[in-house]
Specification:
The protein has a single domain, classed as 3-Layer(bba) Sandwich (FAD/NAD(P)-binding domain). Helix content is about 25%, strand content about 25%. The protein contains eleven helices and 24 strands. The longest helix is centred in the first third of the chain and has 15 residues. The protein is globular. The N and C termini lie far apart (about 55 Å). The chain binds flavin-adenine dinucleotide (FAD). InterPro entries: FAD-dep_OxRdtase, FAD/NAD-bd_sf, MTOX. One of its GO terms (molecular function) is proline dehydrogenase activity. Its cofactor is FAD. This is FAD dependent oxidoreductase.
Length: about 450
């Protein structure tokens, strides 16, 4: 991939990475492997023991696809996917295809994505220009076009990975290098010297400090609690529902492609470990939360921003009825025999995207504070890059951001009101849902 090469960078003697999700762990790996950092101490701190139960990199499955309407991501995902196929946790990767479909304006995303994949020419794609063809390719039992979509394509070279399995596989490899000091503890605040506009590490919730020359915030949807990201990144909660299925049912579905209908964002990934997962890649739930301004020492200075609220905050948390019903309606439309009343979703969770205004990652030095770097903004599609995103992040740290991502991953020149964000065109479903309101409605109906 093309990169600017001129910058000569000072190698920090200590680097602290906040967050051991996909972005943080992959960065730790890339730094540990890079001889330029052989004398640098590398610390990764996470608020939860690994793998964090509520982070977005931990689930039974994540789609691994180069199917993007933006060609740079298609190219980077193709590189990542070759790693999944070969030397990166291949036992956790399953190449059973992905059908990307729609019945509404999201068809634009579908056709751009197909063009990008075909331009690379390495993947086996098949156009599905009717609901019947989608039904056949995906082995759907139901005939309802609302579920399947009416047009789309299947990329037989896409797949999915067991996210938890792959993260544990990767963590073991990073640990074996014996270069990274892993710490469990919650970061409370970034230590900012406002006289020099510089960052020297973080303060933990027990008031201890972790000092570093370079602090990298890779705290996923929680990053917005550590620096002010209003108008730049926001946490959106996505509905994920699970249903136990029998070994025979799993066998029948496990070689079928994932179906992702972008018009409502609902998707079903082939089951694993006897669990079927139905979820929504949508605009998500907002959770506006008022917190002390993360960059201020004045406790009366507050900001309100959307932050995650998870099963760690409330172990009884489940997806609001609205979301469960949507997932259920999708299952009824595509596999009615699985969606009988005697077979409820037995688990559900809200998983938090770190959304940016256009679906691009945010991988950049902070524009104001020296010694602070941010690697986040996964926008619901970051996991597949686990094998390679750390190398890209190190390139950005060194001022060698790949040319085609220079603008995309840069710190935005201005903050944009969240209601004006356009996204990447891949999201469907309801807009403007607020978690507290939906949870309250659900409680009233129970
Ligand atoms: C429901 C859902 C479905 C998705 N599907 C796909 C998919 O199919 N394909 C795909 O490629 N991507 C998918 N994604 C997106 C992908 O999972 C994310 O982009 C990626 O995992 C983000 O990784 P991360 O490291 O930024 O964040 P995370 O994995 O959330 O990691 C952040 C870490 O920071 C830690 N942390 C937070 N605050 C603090 C603190 N104060 N102190 C210390 N530690 C802290 C957390 O405990 C956590 O471990 C999906 C995401 C969700 C939620």
């Amino acid at each position: 991939m093309a990169s600017s090469s001129s910058a000569s960078v000072e190698i920090p003697s200590s680097i602290l990475i906040v967050g051991s999700g996909a972005f943080g762990l992959s960065t730790a790996w890339a730094l540990s492997q890079n001889p330029q950092y052989k004398d640098t101490s590398i610390t990764v701190v996470d608020r939860q023991p690994f793998p964090s139960p509520d982070c977005s990199s931990n689930d039974i499955s994540r789609i691994i696809r180069p199917d993007y309407a933006a060609a740079p991501y298609t190219r980077l995902a193709t590189i990542a996917q070759n790693r999944w196929r070969t030397d990166f946790a291949p036992e956790h990767y399953h190449e059973v295809g992905l059908a990307v479909t729609a019945w509404g304006p999201e068809q634009k995303y579908v056709s751009s994505s197909l063009a990008n994949v075909n331009a690379i020419g390495a993947d086996k794609t098949e156009v599905l220009d009717s609901a019947e063809k989608i039904r056949r390719a995906c082995g759907l039992e139901g005939k309802d076009e609302w579920g399947s979509g009416s047009v789309g394509y299947v990329n037989w070279s896409s797949g999915w990975a067991n996210a938890e399995g792959a993260m544990c596989w990767f963590r073991e490899r990073v640990e074996k290098l014996k270069r990274v000091n892993f710490v469990t503890g919650c970061v409370n605040k970034v230590i900012i010297d406002h006289k020099t506009n510089s960052v020297s590490g973080v303060r933990m919730s027990d008031a201890s400090e972790l000092k570093a020359d370079l602090t990298i915030l890779a705290a996923g949807a929680w990053t917005a609690a550590l620096i002010d990201l209003r108008g730049i990144c926001k946490a959106t909660g996505q509905a994920v529902c699970y249903m136990p299925i029998s070994a025979d049912e799993e066998a029948a579905l496990s070689n079928r492609p994932t179906l992702l209908n972008l018009s409502h964002g609902l998707f079903m990934i082939p089951p694993s470990n006897r669990l079927l997962k139905v979820a929504r890649h949508g605009h998500g739930y907002l959770n506006p939360t008022t917190i002390p301004h993360p960059e201020s020492e004045d406790p009366n200075d507050t900001i309100t921003t959307s932050l995650p609220y998870t099963c760690v905050d409330d172990p009884s948390q489940s997806v609001p009825l609205e979301g469960q019903r949507d997932c259920r309606a999708f299952l009824t439309a595509i596999h009615p025999s699985l969606s009988v009343p005697s077979r409820p979703f037995t688990q559900s969770k809200i998983c938090w995207y770190t959304d940016t205004r256009n679906g691009d990652f945010l991988i950049s030095y902070h524009p104001t504070y020296k010694g602070l770097f941010v690697a986040t903004g996964g926008s619901g599609h970051g996991f597949k890059f686990l094998p390679v995103i750390g190398e890209s992040i190190v390139q950005c740290i060194q001022g060698r951001t790949p040319e085609e991502f220079k603008e995309r991953w840069a710190w935005p020149a201005e903050r944009v009101a969240e209601e004006l964000w356009k996204g990447d065109g891949s999201r469907g479903g309801p807009i403007g849902l607020v978690l507290g309101e939906e949870t309250a409605k659900s409680t009233r109906k129970l």
